[in-house]
Amino acid sequence: MSHLDDEKIALIAMGEPAGSDADMQHLVECESCAAEVAEMSRVALVARSSVVEGDLEAPPADVWSRIHGELGLTEAVAADPASIAGELEPPPEPEHEPEPELEPDSEPAAADAGHPRQRARVRSRRRSSASVWILAASMALVVAIGAGVWIARALTPSSAVIASAELAAFPDHPDAVGQAEVDDDGDGRRTLTVTLEGDELADGDYREVWLIREDGQALISLGVLDDASGTFRVPDGVDLDEYRLVDISFEPVDGDPAHSGDSIVRGELDFA
Fold first, then answer.
1. Does the global pTM surpass 0.70?
2. Structural domains of the chain, ranges and CATH numbers in brackets
3. What distance in Å separates the CA atoms of residue 225 and residue 121, rounded to the nearest whole number?
């Protein structure tokens, strides 16, 4: 009878959908393979529990609830995965028939080395050793990937809106309306996102986004708005408390970098 290979035994022990119907039937009929799967299952359980209780510190209970809310997940995954993992029980140990005792006049064990059952035991021990290594490598890979994802998420700075503005239309563009938001990524990098609706771009013109000082005596161009919305980097060192007016203007293609004076919308930043 052909036995399951080491890799398949390790994957089945880890709960992976690796076995076919024929493999599952083989496990029902083959005591040797079933025992190896049970042994590997215990190894997998120890590996998982050591990750939680050993090198990694368990996060507070409210961490998952914040992640759940931030990502907008469904109620089906509202429970803390760490608490669910802690409730798992080890698989039941397989029942083994007691080995028959040797009669006093039996031959030494070395003499029975060629017996089929003795060969099966040796093969089982060798297969178990190989399966342990395969399972250990698989578990190490799973842990490494999980830790990498967690670290990447933890190290990725989360941006926050620090200011916003409603952009009101100028008399020459009564149907225009716009909004602006300033985001800070936590490392000092600020971006301005603007949206504009209700205007019609004339042939040969383009729209430009500006930051203007409150007294109107200085302004900074952030770039060209090609679509209905756009995001622009706020230059380092620009004080938004001073340059708090957001302006979107029509600009002719005339080679003059100065503001045309034809503003579409403008609004003052309100800091949160």
1. no
2. 6-100+108-155 (no CATH), 160-271 (2.60.40)
3. 75
One DSSP character per residue, 50-96 reads: HIIIIISPPPPHHHHHHHHHHHT--GGG-S-HHHHHHT--PPPPPP-
Rounded CA separation 142/176 (Å): 53
Residue the block writes with tokens 């399972």: 135
Query: At 24, is the secondary structure helix, strand, or coil?
Result: helix
Could you give the maximum distance between any two Cα atoms of the chain, in Å? 114
* Token pair of 1 as six digits: 């009878």
Residue 250 backbone dihedrals phi, psi, to 5 degrees: -85, 135
User: Of 180, 136, 112, 131, nearest to 32 (Cα)?
Assistant: 131
DSSP at 236: T
Picking from 250, 268, 71, 66, the residue whose alpha carbon sits closest to that of residue 182 is 268
Gap between the Cα atoms of 92 and 39, Å rounded: 10
Strand partners, 141: none
CB 40 within 8 A of CB 9: yes
H/E run at residue 74: none
* C-alpha–C-alpha distance, residues 33 and 2, integer Å: 10
Angle at 224 between CA 223 and CA 227, to 5 degrees: 135
Per-residue pLDDT of the chain (272 residues; tens, 9 = 90+): 578 788 777 777 777 766 677 878 777 788 888 888 777 777 666 655 544 444 455 666 676 677 766 666 667 667 766 665 555 555 555 555 555 555 555 444 444 545 555 555 555 555 555 555 666 666 666 655 665 555 555 555 567 999 999 999 999 999 999 999 999 998 889 999 999 998 877 777 899 999 999 998 999 999 999 989 999 999 999 999 999 999 999 998 888 889 999 999 999 999 97
Q: Which residue has the tokens 């602006």?
A: 180
Q: Which residues pair with 177 in a beta bridge?
A: 197
